[in-house]
Amino acid sequence: MDWLHCNKCMAYPSRGVNNEYYLCPRAHFTCQACVVPASGSTNKRCPGCPGEVGADKLVPVGSKMRPQLKNLFRDGPRQVSELDRTLQFHRNQATILLRLEDKETRDAEERARRAEEEAREMEDKVRRLQVDKDRLDRELHQLNQELVRAANASPLAQDEDNKEERREDLVYHGHKEDMRYVIFVSNLN
To answer: Using an 8 Å Cβ cutoff, are 21 and 10 in contact?
Structure first.
């Protein structure tokens, strides 16, 4: 890391000059010789920072640093390469996710299209059944009318005494819900 040097005296750690280095909160890199004690105290301060930076704020550079700070000292091109691999991984994951979501969307649209088609077919079937039912209801109504006419035309219907009794025995039931017609004819013989 030939680019790393003390920000005051330009001592290079790679050349073995001044073995201890410190990092301040403002990212100033300073060798031990340049870290100056504050006036009248044992605290050290960064020569690049205005005011006093306590010893607890100066971080000794080494293996005990937090990982975020260690990353500052890693080789730049290698970090860029790793970052590029990381970004490529993120991009690939996003592409895969979009592809899967797109497939799920197409599948859902196909299921919806088929459901709509089935619903249309069911509606058509219901309409055809309704037409058949209406036709059968008309036929049943005509048959009921013919039955009543036939019952009225029978010899028993001609007899005035039996006519009233026969009318009471002829019952016509119409149910609105299912439009079934039932006729009970009894005592016609």
So the answer is: no
Element housing 59 (H / E): strand 59-60
| Interval 27-39: pLDDT, tens | 888 888 888 665 5
- Distance from C-alpha of 188 to C-alpha of 40, rounded to nearest angstrom: 134
Q: pLDDT by residue (tens digit) across 139-158?
A: 999 998 988 888 787 766 55
Residue 55 banded pLDDT, cuts 50, 70, 90: low
Query: 175: burial class by Cβ within 10 Å (0-12, 13-18, 19+)?
Result: exposed
| Cα–Cα distance, 89 to 81 (Å, whole number) | 12
* Secondary structure (DSSP) of 113-134: HHHHHHHHHHHHHHHHHHHHHH
Query: For residue 92, what are its two tokens?
Result: 């690939």
**The residue to which tokens 């080789």 are assigned:** 75
Could you tell me if 26 and 20 are in contact, meaning their C-beta atoms sit under 8 angstroms apart? no
